Amino acid sequence: MSVIVTESPISEKDMIEQAEKALADISRVREGVGKVIFGQESVVERTLVALLAGGHALLVGVPGLAKTRLVETLGVVLGLDSRRIQFTPDLMPSDILGSEVMEQDENGRRSFRFIPGPVFAQLLMADEINRASPRTQSALLQAMQEYHITVAGQRYDLPSPFHVLATQNPLEQEGTYPLPEAQLDRFLMQIDILYPDLDAERRILLETTGTSESRAANAIGPERLKEIQTLVRRMPAPESVVEAILKLVRSARPGQGVAETDRDVAWGPGPRASQALTLCARARALYDGRLAPSVDDVKALAEPVLQHRMALTFAARAEGMSVRDVVARLAKAL
């Protein structure tokens, strides 16, 4: 998640004025994305909420559901400097971060020069991230959390803003590796992409098989995106929302006095999940044109924020239970 920025309080009038301007910009972004991505309103909403909250998102779905196209479209609409990495089994950490090369000047003196890798971008698309080995996947750990990398003991800061949108094929497919738990926790949300409905698929057929296709146009720039992200962090979180987040996240952990969780959950979400829910609830409220989040926002975001931060016991998996089932049960109890 983004580095916390401390801002001075602003008046309610200024908050309303800034929120109205932000809502107008967000509407332009939604309209721009909608010209290229048909249907999938929930996926677009959650992905934009993750970006407005200043975080990273993991898009999970079978091939052919426009995951890559969505990320490319967002890069254009948001005006971000974008790079793409195609993850493959032979990809090395230096292919992502960059490497040092030895150079020799005209006097014969040798020195090392760092050549930045594709991670130095404002929007990094990690395409099919789970097709690379866990060692290579872990190359993004420091970048996603601390917004800089270290090569040969030297620190290199990443551009601002910096977001990773990774696509992932279902783990049951051939040639995939599960992501390390520490890296999964760096993703603000895991967004599952399902097949489009009938009307959306009909529109896809009609509009993408002709001689021309709709193309995305820029709506805002990176500086404006950072301003909206700051506004999200300044939005108030009602006490009822804070209590709902704490109740939900803590009830998802074994050993907290919830018998069903103790039975079904091997390990649960940490404090980073509470932070993610708080930021995403604020961003979702702004996305919907509201000045403060509600408990309904927490319920709506429980699955994408928590599902990749939990693991079930063997007994629960043997019974055919999924993490989504557990999260849905806990969210319903709020």
TrEMBL record:
Signal sequence, renumbered to the chain: none
Pfam families linked: AAA_3, AAA_lid_2
Enzyme class, first EC level, given as a word: hydrolase
Domain ATPase AAA-3: 56-189
Source domain of life: Bacteria
Gene Ontology molecular functions: hydrolase activity
The keyword Hydrolase appears for this protein: yes
All residue ranges annotated as the ChlI/MoxR AAA lid domain in the record: 262-328
Keyword terms: Hydrolase
Keyword Methyltransferase: no
Gene3D superfamilies: Magnesium chelatase subunit I, C-Terminal domain (1.10.8.80), P-loop containing nucleotide triphosphate hydrolases (3.40.50.300)
EC number(s) given by UniProt: 3.6.3.-
InterPro entries: ATPase_AAA-3, CbbQ/NirQ/NorQ/GpvN, ChlI/MoxR_AAA_lid, P-loop_NTPase
Protein name: MoxR-like ATPase
